[in-house]
Write a structure and sequence with these properties.
heterodimer; A: alpha+beta; 9-stranded antiparallel beta sheet; two-stranded antiparallel sheet; elongated; B: alpha+beta; 4-stranded mixed beta sheet; 12 helices; disordered N terminus
Amino acid sequence: MATRTALVAWLSRSCIISCMALVLPPASFGTLVRSPLELVVCQVRHDERPVSVDTVLAVQEALGGSDGFFSRIENVERHTAALTIASGAMGSPAPEVVHGWHLKSADRGWTAALLPEQFSLETTRYTNWGEFHSRLRALIEAIEKIDVPSLEQRIGLRYVDRLVGLPVTAAVDWARWISAPILGAPLHDVVGPAVRSVRQQVEFDLEGDTVCALRHGLATEPDGDAVYVLDFDMYREKAQRFSGKALLGAANQFHQQADALFQQVITDDLLTYLSGQRDD
Amino acid sequence: MTDLLIGSCNDDVFWTRSERTEAQACEAAAQLGPWMINFIGSRLQSVQRSPGRVMLIALPGPAFDGWSYGCGEAVPIRNTWAHLVESTGGWDNVGTCIALVIKDIVSSEGWGANTSPHRPPSNDPPVDSPLADVLSTVDDELRLDDAINEVKNRLMLSEGELQAATGLSRSTLWRLRSDPDSGRRSTTEAAIWRLHALSSALVRVLGADGTRHWLSSGDPSPISLLNSGHVSEVERAADRLLFPRPRVERSFAGVDDSDYPAAQTAHRETTTHVAPPLPRRARRAPSGEP
């Protein structure tokens, strides 16, 4: 009886996955001259409202006008179609079309998107957080000034790192670059050598209300290159009154947490390599 | 009309439906067409034909969120496709399948020659839509017997090799050919239609002679792989021919001294092994900035 009670108690403890908000040690690395960053995007979702031509022109003007950094305006449409099958019946309602605007830099490396239910800033030409943050600040301040939403529903900051060009011929070779507990299956004694690709999603509760969805995995590209993708999506999903100051504070926090998490996920060897202190 | 049905299975258990921070970049969608073909091909379970309609039944997978293919970013897929239909139950219940009307979307304004749901800038190079090409060649009236003959002819397969490639026995093939309408054997037919799609795509791109040449080249050659039933490996090899990956320029800003804050510059000066900054690379800024 005592054994059974103990078993029930153990099961009660072990069957519930509890997690605590993680306070990460801050990142200790500086500039990465071989940064694998491919995409950085910060997106804010808010209550829905149409984005008029006047609004987008005013935002562009606030960001420097047609001669400024975001010199191009492009109309975008998002098509969403739905088909429902139920009990043999099939219905295909007309696609929903959402109209919005993109403000683009002249080199197209930066996009500020204004859509009815969201705005975002993204770049494939990330240089440093200082630049990104200042452009994000300008965008948020412009929106606050011109057509402020009532409600913030979600803010996310996403870093997509793409590791390629490293001496990797088998999945297990990533163990040199990716932290072993994160890498997972390729390290298995028996099935590891057979691993061809890996895709995993891990969600972390971080300090504050931050959640990080880390999507990561390895694959071989069609041209034969081994690639490892680390996709950090830091976000907070909490409806609250829209506040530009709060959004910028959250973005700052996400950035620091993403850097700290990045360091936990990779090995010292990779950090050394990315820092440019060693050639491989 | 071509439909794609995707069974729901239990992926929600393992792949939570957390919303994603979405990107907008058009270049992120450059691989959408090939990716979608891959997606369909790898999960195709069966094909059902009826007058005026081809129904593909496929399994879903986490690759629906598939950033790991090609240039790595499939956010537009997420935006458009993942929101199409909700799946709420098991595969056995048709009413709980995710369903996508491929051809409707291909022919719609939002797809067609543009693989991004967002209209690309007019001066961007057009993005091919192999999905549209493939679907435009779908012949709703093609009989299974004709399809088998085409597969054998295009892929130079004997009856025995066709059995090996499809995993179907001689008697099953005979039954399918002799009485294609006797009951539903869509799952059984799928192996044949899979090969037919592969052979059609190869002939379309390489021509009949080119296809035969390609099939017999290399070691192991695709034809030997087919003969040993390794259709997936042949599809992977063909994928590189059918969908050559466009070279997406990775345009990152260069890093120069002005990018470094003063403290960082001092740090760099004391590090003798730091390689000179590479051109066209981004950097991850130190924590705490700005």
